[in-house]
Input
Amino acid sequence: MAERERYTEIREENAIRIDEIFGQNVFNDNVMQQRLPKKSYRELRHVIDEGRTLDPVTADVVAHAMKEWAIEKGATHFTHWFQPLTGITAEKHDAFISHEDEEGRVMTEFSGKELVRGEADASSFPSGGTRSTFEARGYTTWDCSSPAFIKESGCGKILCIPTAFNSYTGEALDRKTPLLRSMDALSEQAMRIVRLFGNTDAKKVISSVGPEQEYFLVDEDLYKKRPDLMYTGRTLFGAPAPRGQEMEDHYYGVIRERVGEFMRDLNTELWKLGVTAKTQHNEVAPAQHELAPIYETANIAADHNQLVMETMKRVAVHHGLRCLLHEKPYKGVNGSGKHNNWSINTDSGMNLLDPGETPNENIQFLLILSCIIKAVDVHADLLRQSAADVGNDHRLGANEAPPAIMSVFLGEQLEDVVLQLIETGEATSVKQGGVLKTGVSILPDVEKDATDRNRTSPFAFTGNKFEFRTVGSSDSIAAANTVLNAIVAEALCDAANELEAAEDFDMGVHDLIKKNLTEHQRIIFNGDGYSEAWIKEAKRRGLPNIPSMIEAAPALTTDKAISLFEKFGIFTKKELTSREEVVYETYAKSINIEALTMIDMASRQILPACIRYASSLAAGVKDMLSLDMDAATEKDILNRVQEEISKLKKALDVLEEDHAKAVTVADEKEKAFYYKDVIKKDMSVLRESADRLELMVDKRMWPLPTYGELMFEV
Ligand code: ADP
Ligand code: MG
Output
């Protein structure tokens, strides 16, 4: 299509009316009001808002309305949509048909029972070795707090019902269940605090999340020529391109046409699903981009983030592209993460992380802040673990953003207030000339947005929210938010216990803020989180520095973690043990796939190409000598190529031998460490050799698209 025509099409005929399409595929509150009898709507609303159980009669009414709505929209199937421990979503489609009636018409059926509960074979999903003690049977149960939606794909239109996934005996086998449990725990404890401060109208406290999603795009034809991208999502070989991100011209740069068309389609699909895709821009690395939605309830944000990742992958294919969500697709350029913006708000609309207008709100803010600081310090290991996945090992603790050491960034102004409180128990001045209007001499009014940005902190206060920057780009955000909610619930619970018993509330709050800040000051760090100096300083302060996913896993089952999670009914010890097992299994399996892919590519693509090149050089040398020419330079090149080929072959042999031993390691944890300590090292030696050869061999003979092509031909 001619350029001009194409733009006319985009601008005119296909112009998107965002107000018309937004949420059109969602069974949202609006649709429920229109389609449900008043009584059933009210009943369902109560269930959603207050977490009650749905009665079977209402369930039938809702199911019927949902089915009619979905069929009118062209849906042919329904599915319980859930999030097993694979990190992605699972679905099994059932058509809306049952038997024919007497006239041979097909009946459409969907009962309340089918809406509320489904069955799935639990033993086919990761369950962490506890599978044999679990009944193989697993159940999916409707989470009515996250709206049902219709997904449009090659399968047609499918009604998706967000569900939790549990074993027959009640163990959570998914990421949603613990997240929902942690939201309840946080709400209950935070309510105790706001009540103490005289708030009587709030009914619950909601954790809100806005995850910024980074991703790479790559041309599909090139992608298909890279077995490493296809099997592992990242490049296992590849010499650096002459140009990388050093010109700093990609971040916020003009979005290229092809990428723009992808983003336009992506937004349209997401808006239809009720996902508030808001911000889009080019990221630091070539071919890297970001999408950020507007924040919403943690549970819905987690569901929507899954939809964002899924939709990115699907829409990319329609544009002859592939979307890479891996944390480190390319060596030597920035990787991708997810900035998890988190805040806690009352249902009456007060953000508890917003430094308030009045002295009262201000004190409440400082108390909650001090509790969060305590929570992060006490459970730094757990927070680190919550963001661990295989790909993220390439970022955290590997000289890339953000560091593996957890710390809290407060900004200059707030840190100054905190230091004053620690030193004298009072804060009498605010930096940058702010005016105190506390009326309670000990606590200042804190100005909003007076903080500078800090890009190196894993957990940064940004005005009225915390930004947890450590989550991996491909990972579900559920685990991170489960841990955040849980650890803060615990700290708030401790505070509420103390303050409910205090004789003098004002004095009690004052003392507690000072105590929390003094005892946990070590976790506050405002400097450069990437520097060597911080690593040393953090060590001196006794902060954990956990470099890898499998070294982080034991944090799940420390006494401290078990007591935290059991206290608030978020995980049982059994669930935690199984999750730790899943970490080791997942890690070993992932690195195993990477190792096998490398062996395959090195043996069947790279080595043969190098040998072909060496033979062609040899033939050239031979020809030259037969003509009595001086072939010294050519011979020298040949020698160097040959030398490198033998290094490559040796590295390949070592990897193959060590890999053969891996299967003999029976214990899952031991096996995971074997992959990390032995196999990964072998892989890196092999890669170095292959990457050196890539820079020596005739480009026309190299069997793989280069870094330059992958990153610049989008
Ligand atoms: P930044 O200054 O870090 O670029 P933005 O204001 O653009 O932050 O927001 C980034 C993400 O944070 C968005 O997804 C946004 O919806 C979310 N966000 C903003 N305010 C809050 C809040 N109070 N709680 C949770 N998330 C929030
Ligand atoms: Mg960003």
